Amino acid sequence: MTATNLNVIQTNDRQDSCLQINRNQTEESSILISVFQSIDSGLIVCDNHGIIIMMNTESERLTGWMSAQAKGLNLDRVYNAIDEETGISILPFLLRQLKSGKNDISGSKLILKCRDGKTYRVSNHIKLLTHNGETAGIIILFRDETSDFRLQAEMQKEEKFRALKSLASSVAHDYNNILTAILGNTSLAMMCLNSKEKTGEMLEKIEKSCFKARDFNQKLLIFAADSKPITEKTEMADIVNLVKSNEKINNNIQFIFSIPDTIWPVCIDRFQIKTAIEKLLDNAVQAMPSGGAVKISACNSVIDYYNNMLLEPGRYVCLSVKDKGVGVPSSYTDRIFEPFFTTKCSGSGLGLSHCYSIMKRNGGAITVESEEGKGSTFKLYMPASKPAC
């Protein structure tokens, strides 16, 4: 074999070896890409400037961007995640955390806004990619938890059903107490018919018990009634004046009203809202048996789509009723608007649930902030007036 032939053979061997290496690398790349695309969570890879390099199939579904379209774009243009509670974009915060030295950050309770307008509830995990001790890029892994949220909603429905059963039990219990008083005194009155004085006293007790039954029944009817509100454009000052005209005299309680002239008109049923405010004032008075001040104030508020009160986005007026009473334990605040739930010995548990029902019917909401021993602040959100109102 000549030297020339040997060189040719060695050259061919080297070429075959290179081809085999290329084939192996191609196969490995193909496998890695398949794994990358098959991950059931969204995955976005960026360079260290936040420019998107690649995305997998699930991230395309959740963001509404195809990988080819998103490549080369800034991450914040494609991955638009909002904190569910504050409505603020979380990406700037996460990137600042990364720059401060943290290289592994997780987040939950996020709303991801898709390019086509859909929204998903997601959790995410962001990590820095490093090479030879230097930052080489950023990887974002995010999981669709929308179905988990729907499951939680179904569980909440079950919880409401149990609350309804508790409600029925409470109704039966309260009516039983009232009817027992009526029947007992009636029986005694019949045994004492020969004594007009004693009979009159017992019949008076029967009458009082009947009035209690009537009042309690009226509360039930008001709460259960799905009466459609008669909405009209109303100035907040007019509602407050209606409340003031019926304000109960209490020497121990001072009512302080602060309603600026700049408050927007609202579109509500003024008499239903008046009832809700009066119930909150009654609640505040009962919370301060030793007396004190109740502050009633109002402010304009713009509510966005991501509010946690399930309100339609738009303009609202927020009326606050603040007391410095006994407050509500934190373990009870989630239940405070449930029918028949009360922390008072003599309460019916219908006052605040009635307020909740009124606000929902008027397109608004009611919230509570309370600290045991320091007082409570109830807020009524009412839709601001529109031209069609």
Give a description of the structure.
- The mean pLDDT is 77.
- 45% of the residues lie in helices and 24% in strands.
- It has 389 residues and is of the alpha+beta class.
- It starts with a helix and ends in a 6-residue tail after the last strand.
- The strands form 3 sheets. It has a 6-stranded antiparallel beta sheet with strand order 2-1-6-5-4-3, sandwiched between helices.
- The longest helix is centred in the middle third of the chain and has 46 residues.
- The protein has 10 helices and 13 strands.
- Strand 5 and strand 6 form a beta hairpin.
- It has 4 domains: 30 residues; 106 residues, Beta-Lactamase (2-Layer Sandwich); 74 residues; 152 residues, Heat Shock Protein 90 (2-Layer Sandwich).
What's the quick description here?
The protein is α+β, with helices and mostly antiparallel strands and 389 residues long. The protein has helices at residues 3-38, 57-63, 67-70, 75-78, 91-99, 146-191, 196-224, 236-245, 270-287, 351-361; strands spanning 42-46, 52-55, 81-83, 104-113, 119-131, 134-144, 232-234, 253-258, 266-268, 292-303, 314-322, 365-371, 375-383. It is built from ten helices and 13 strands.
